[in-house]
Design brief:
Elements lengths: L1 H5 L4 H10 L5 E3 L2 E3 L2 H9 L4 H4 L4 E7 L4 E5 L11 E4 L10 H7 L1 E4 L2 H10 L7
Antiparallel strand pairs: 1-2, 2-3, 3-4, 4-5, 5-6
Length: about 130
């Protein structure tokens, strides 16, 4: 949990992970909600997460095609109201700038709770 806090994961997501962290990953309609260990790996070691984290994006879920759902920490209204964006793994590279990334990141939910509601309903946008 300390590692998630160090990544600035929003409070509502921290609470959710504490209460119901997926054992491996939870998948509904080709969207995978990741366990804590994978969130940390995706955001610090794997591409594109390691490239986009310095720009304020923390990966916490993926599509079946490898695109990433992220907390948009720079777009946060508060510690609990953090927009969720979808980022294409094919469009982001080591040299992608903050400005370019901002135009590539597609908002899919206003906050983590809205994301979870759409995830459970199987209605999340999976097209970056």
């Amino acid at each position: 949990m300390t590692q998630l806090q160090a990544l600035n994961v929003p409070e509502d997501a921290l609470s959710s992970f504490l209460e119901a962290e997926p054992a491996h990953h939870a998948e509904i309609e080709n969207v995978r909600l990741l366990p804590i260990s994978t969130v940390i790996e995706e955001s610090t070691r794997y591409v594109p997460g390691a490239y986009i984290r310095p720009h304020g994006y923390v990966v916490f879920a993926t599509t079946h095609c490898g695109d990433r759902y992220c907390f948009d920490l720079k777009g946060a209204v508060s510690r609990t109201t953090v927009p969720i964006v979808l980022v294409s793994h094919e469009m982001v590279g080591e040299d992608t700038t903050k400005v370019e990334l901002r135009s590539l990141a597609k908002q899919v939910a206003t906050d983590f709770e809205s994301f979870l509601v759409a995830f459970v309903a199987g209605t999340l946008d999976t097209t970056p």
